[in-house]
Amino acid sequence: MSIDRDTFEKTSEDELEELSVPDQVLGFLAANEDRAFKAREIASQIGVDEGAVSTALSRLKDRDLVEHKATYWAITDDAERLDGYSGYERATALFNQQLGTEDKESWREHAPEEPHPSVEDER
């Protein structure tokens, strides 16, 4: 996975140490916690081989850190479980440093009026 030159220059070597594939997968899913993805979509987004992503997802599922339904994967909503996984904290910190923290209000401003078809109507 590439980084921009500014991040390269301002980040320490320890912080730039490459994240493991499970950490990258978990970090991606955490950044997109309101969505579920197919393994190939995750692989494409993080720039890692699909086989490696599938293996990582299986291992993360064994630790109850991700959920799997049909061909889709999502991060667990068990915050306590995630807090106990040290890679999650490291991945989140690195992604926040590189990309900035999410501003949920900004996301809401650009959200569509209608829910995505995959979201069940809660009304």
UniProtKB/TrEMBL annotation:
<feature type="domain" description="HTH marR-type">
    <location>
        <begin position="24"/>
        <end position="69"/>
    </location>
</feature>
<dbReference type="InterPro" id="IPR000835">
    <property type="entry name" value="HTH_MarR-typ"/>
</dbReference>
<dbReference type="Pfam" id="PF12802">
    <property type="entry name" value="MarR_2"/>
</dbReference>
<feature type="compositionally biased region" description="Basic and acidic residues">
    <location>
        <begin position="101"/>
        <end position="123"/>
    </location>
</feature>
<dbReference type="InterPro" id="IPR036390">
    <property type="entry name" value="WH_DNA-bd_sf"/>
</dbReference>
<protein>
    <submittedName>
        <fullName>MarR family transcriptional regulator</fullName>
    </submittedName>
</protein>
<dbReference type="InterPro" id="IPR036388">
    <property type="entry name" value="WH-like_DNA-bd_sf"/>
</dbReference>
<feature type="region of interest" description="Disordered">
    <location>
        <begin position="99"/>
        <end position="123"/>
    </location>
</feature>
<dbReference type="GO" id="GO:0006355">
    <property type="term" value="P:regulation of DNA-templated transcription"/>
</dbReference>
